[in-house]
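Q: Hi! Curious about what Arylsulfatase looks like structurally. Here's the sequence.
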Amino acid sequence: MQAKPNLLLISVDQMRGDCLSILNHPVVDTPNLDQLARSGVLFRNAYSATPSCIPARAAMLTGMSQRHHGRIGYQDQVPWDYEHTLPSVLAASGYHTQCVGKMHVYPARNLCGFHNIVMHDGYLHHNRMRPSTPVAESFDSCDDYLPWLRERAGADSDLLDLGLDCNASTVARPWHLPEALHPTNWVVTQSIDFLRRRDPRKPFFLSMSFVRPHPPFDPPQAFLDMYLDADIPEPVMGEWAQTEDTEKHGLNPVTNKGIVPKHRLRRAQAAYYALITHIDHQIGRFLQAMHEYDVLRNTVILFTSDHGELLGDHNLFRKTLPYEGSAKVPFILADPGGMLHLCKNTTNDRVIEIRDIMPTLLDAAGAPIPDTVDGASLLPLAKGEEAAWREAIHGEHECKDMSNHYMTDGLQKYIWFSQTGREQLFDLRSDPQELRNVAEDGRYQASLASWRERLAAELAGREEGCSDGRRLIAGRPAQTLLQEAFR
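A: Let's find out. The predicted structure is below.
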């Protein structure tokens, strides 16, 4: 057996933290992910500090908090020039590094330390704006899936063929081509091909990165059929939720709020769950291929998502907001061959964040962890060792008038909306679905004041000026980037 384990990072896009059947989800079925959890540790309080694609992936790739990677909102076309990344450190430590699927960096062909990338970022608007986008940055030149698809399905095939927008969280229809041509299957097909042509003298690090279950909600028909007649619960609705939609925002297929027609929303829920089960089955396909190539027994596997999907909770959709459906993610650290001696088939309730991925995998590889990394290795927790751990995490996201900061220790969650000063406090122990805002409940005033002080201290010295270190200051312009991080 080789001295260093192979490393497999499986990331999906926009998957809620509760969508695992091992967590007793009332509908979704994830047999292969359940088995991964049984062969390792399931972390039940994993969060995305900046819950949208670009900033979350910066944390994943660099191990930095948003204060240091500098991305506190969604902004495309900002160069990725980080000194240390997960693949660059592993490559320097003797690993053969490969990414298949989504990167969402800039420029799109930036290797970010990987030896090679086979790319599909999904539909990105800035890459599709023609003719203003330079050819070197256009979608046709920076996507590997679409040329592959056109060779098999016809030269006119495109990602727009179904008429679904890439952010349409409220509409759905089945995939129209053979399942083998779906982007989810393509990621696994290309990943299996990497097993064939990898350097056998080196351990490998493979990032297998799926675009789904991010919209478009287009599962193959067989998977959609699994959920169309299922008893799908309605989204949770907090007492504080907006229950009127006088401007009819909910009729917009790419809405982030509003009252969506029930039949449309239910079909979107079914398709979202179907995409997750489709990914699960394809992960099962890859695990079988790993067994055939005799690498499953010496590979450490980490599964997670960059952020969640509100899917109608509190009449909200998509991501960027700090509620559980958006900010909490699935997180499994699996060790099928027992190389790391994890406490298998266990759960852990410590609060962790996407920035912990890089130090965890570097620790598993015996590679050095750069000083730039803010996250911490999860291996001591996964081995059941007594270890000091963070008390809480701070998250945030620019979101216009809903720009927000949050802090949570897994027991309570404090939310502050930076433009209005509005506060929310949820007792996650008794109210895990965030149905009741207790910020004005007299019994919670001491907790509220404590969280407010902690956030003020966390934001002290930041360029936005929304804290003087002692108090929070509302109304300062929200930013998508911290300029100080890019100087």
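A: A fun detail: Residues 6-393 form a domain with the Alkaline Phosphatase, subunit A fold (CATH 3.40.720.10).
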